[in-house]
Amino acid sequence: MKIKKGDTIKVLYGKDAGKRASVIAINPKKNTVVADGVNVYKRHIKGDGRDKTSEIVNLVKPMPTAKVMLVCPLCNKATRVGMKIEDGKKVRVCKKCGKAIDEVKKEEVTKKVGTKPKKKTTKSKVKKKTTVKESTTKRKVKSKKSKK
């Protein structure tokens, strides 16, 4: 597949036509792409009345790769992707501007890693609720009636 995780894509047709999103996951066997905020459906989950509550959940479903097109990070246009061999490695190339896409991705990642501030981690105490069910079984006692 010419689309990879972390790429920016543009939806060509369907209910989300024209939207741009970043790729969360890909499935090469089914030729599908999962993108953030695109192809979102609502699922109504029924609660059982005790523990689970009824709710409406937003699900991001996969969509076919034929519906999407890669957006070049250099020229910021939706483009087809070509392959080129440079220094013995296959590199993805933008068909509109002719520059390598993979090299730009690596540079962005190294810039982001260097400027990331450290997060403080705090441990919070969480009390677990334990419920004990007492077995209350009712037994039917049969009374013997004597016939006289």
Q: What keyword list fits this structure?
A:
148 residues; mainly beta; SH3 type barrels; 2 domains; elongated
Helix fraction?
Answer: under 10%
Distance between the termini: 91 Å
Listing every helix as H and every strand as E from the N terminus to the C terminus, the arrangement reads: EEEEEEEEEEH
> How many structural domains?
2
The total of beta strands comes to: 10
Structural class: mainly beta
**Strand composition percent:** 25-35%
Rg over CA atoms: 28 Å
* Secondary structure tally, helices: 1
Mean of all residue-level pLDDT scores: 81
Oligomer: single chain
Main pleated sheet: 6 strands, antiparallel
- Just name the CATH architecture of the largest domain: Roll
Sequence stretches where pLDDT stays below 50 over 5 or more residues? none
CATH class of the largest domain: Mainly Beta
> Strands of the largest sheet, in order across it?
6-3-2-1-7-8
* CATH topology (level 3) name of the largest domain: SH3 type barrels
Identify the overall geometry: elongated
Write the SSE topology.
Elements: E1 8-11, E2 20-27, E3 32-35, E4 40-45, E5 55-60, E6 63-64, E7 68-71, E8 78-79, E9 81-86, E10 89-94, H1 101-114
Please provide a written account of the structure.
- It is a single chain.
- By secondary structure, the chain is mainly beta.
- The protein folds into two domains: 63 residues, SH3 type barrels; 41 residues, no CATH class.
- Helices cover 9% and strands 32% of the residues.
- The protein has one helix and ten strands; from the N terminus they run ββββββββββα.
- It is elongated, with a radius of gyration of 28 Å.
- It starts with 7 loop residues before the first strand and ends in a 34-residue tail after the last helix.
- The mean pLDDT is 81.
